[in-house]
Structure formats: structure tokens, C-alpha cells
Amino acid sequence: MSRKGSASGSRVRPNASTEDRKGGTDRGRRRSLEDHGGRDRDGAGPLNVAGRWEDAGVVQGFSTAAANEILLAFVRAELARWPRLRILDVGCGAARNAAPMAAHGATVVGTDMAWPMLEAAGRRVVSESVAERVAFVRAPMDRLPLGDASIDLVVAHGIWNLARSAAEFRRAIAEAARVARPGAGLFVFTFSRATLAPDDQPVPGEPFVFTQFAGEPQCFLTEEQLTEELLRAGFEKDPPGPLTEYNRPVAGRTLTRGGPVIYEGTFRAVRQS
Fold first, then answer.
1. Per-residue b/e over 215-253, b at no fewer than 16 CB within 10 Å?
2. For residue range 160-187, what is the model confidence (pLDDT) as tens digits?
3. Residues with Cβ < 8 Å from 114, sequence gap 6 or more?
């Protein structure tokens, strides 16, 4: 779910020791990381994104985090429909979900912008014996190095809320729609507007980008906004009905800046955008 990473254009072997990177043995088991982070959209220099995702403590926390069991149940259902399921895990972090999804039998492509997260992800899939079913690519959420209609299930777990503008958010979901084949699933886990106080104002000129939660621009959408944005991109709620919302403050109590309120839901690609 991280954004950070220097743009180098190089490849590394995430689970390799220093000796292995210099030319050691056992290379047959090593999956390379591809770097598609590139330069900013004007070609002026590397992408400038939040650095906390490269912090060793943060990486360690994500390395040991458990998978989302609701997501895994959805993956099992999708595998029953499509036994050769190909999953894109956008903002995969340290593979908390990618490794278990691969263990269930899916083929997984994980993207992230933080090299330390991707290196930790590589070590995790090797330790869990699923490395042959997973590939990791360093790429931003709004420029996915995948072909059109090439993915059976898109997982956006805690990543789209990190978009710093509505334009970036919309590019990200448009990219998800582009790579999703018709009928592909989408699993969304993202910040709810209910995280913030009712009188909190968005960044000027932005419909759902706020800085009050973490001191930097992040996306907090209402359920109506989120479902409308996804429908515009080509994703329809499936099954129909409201999103699941976690951690919503109890009415009548003082709103505190604790953990974020989360929306979670599943969608289906109904057209190519």
C-alpha cells in the first residue's frame, strides 16, 4: 500500500543475499523485481512520494501482518469461477495478501512503489513457498505495466486512499478498469469520509482530498462518491447493496483522530473504460 521509491530503472532480487546479488548461486529460485516507477509525468525527475513506507519499522510491521480474511474468501469464490485466476494486487506492500492469495492457487502480480516493501514481499513469498506464483513490479497505482483486459481480479487494499488528488485517484481506477477483463472482480478497501469531522474541509479545488487525518493529502470518499467513481470507470457493485464500513464512530460521542474508518466491498468490471 506504499507510494515511496526512488526511480532507478534497475532490477533487484528481493530475496537474495548480498553475495547472490553479486553473482552467487541458487538463482533459479529468485524472482526479479521490475522497476516501472520512472519519472514524474512531466519527465522532470523521480516521483516524490511519502517516505514512511521505506521505514524499517513500518516494513517490519507489514511483513508480519495477517491477510484480510474477507478478501481471501472472495479469492476462493473467484477461483471457483476461474481456476486459473490472475490477480493484480495494487500497492501490495510486503505481500500480506499476495502470498496467501498465491497459496490458494492464484497467480499474483503485486505492484508497489517502495523497494523495501517489495524486497520484504519477495522474502515472504519465498518463505511461504509460493514464489513461482507471484511477480512483483515497482510501479505507481496510476501507471500499471500490464496489458489491457489481462487481469481476472484487481485488489486495491489500502492504496487508492493514498492518492494525493482526485485526478490521481481517477487515473488509478481507470488503470484498474483498463487491465481488468470484462467480468473481472474488484476488491476495494479504502478510507471513508466518516474518518473526519463533519466540518473538515477538503483541499481547495479537490472534492474528496483532505489533509486533516495525517497532515498530507489523502482521499476520503463517501459511499456515494466511491460507488459513483467506480461505476464511471466501469465497476459495478457486486453483489448489489451497501459497502461494509469498519470503525465508524458511535453517534453522539466525540470524534477522535484514531484509526481511519474503512470501506470494504466487491465490484465487477461491466465494461472496458
1. eebbbbbebeebbebbeebbbebeeeeebeeeeeeeeee
2. 999 999 999 999 999 999 999 999 999 9
3. 2, 3, 4, 5, 53, 54, 59, 93
| Structural domain count, the chain | 1
Q: With 80 as the cut, is the pLDDT of residue 84 above it?
A: yes
Whether the CB-CB separation of 140 and 170 falls below 8 Å is answered with: no
Alpha-carbon distance values, 114 to 6, 120, 204 (Å)? 8, 10, 29
Buried b (16+ CB within 10 A) or exposed e, 135-146: bbbbbbbbebeb
> What residues make up the domain containing 248?
51-269
* Residue 150, C-alpha cell as written in the block: 489481462
Query: How far apart, in Å, do the first and last CA atoms of the chain sit?
Result: 24
Query: What's the burial of 25, exposed, middle or buried (CB within 10 Å: 0-12/13-18/19+)?
Result: exposed
Query: For the residues of 136-167, what is the DSSP string, one character each?
Result: EEE--TTS--S-TT-EEEEEEES-GGG-SSHH
pLDDT category at 202 given cuts 50, 70, 90 is: very high
In CATH, what number is assigned to the domain containing residue 66? 3.40.50.150
Q: Is residue 10 assigned to a domain?
A: no
C-alpha span between 112 and 157 (Å, rounded): 12
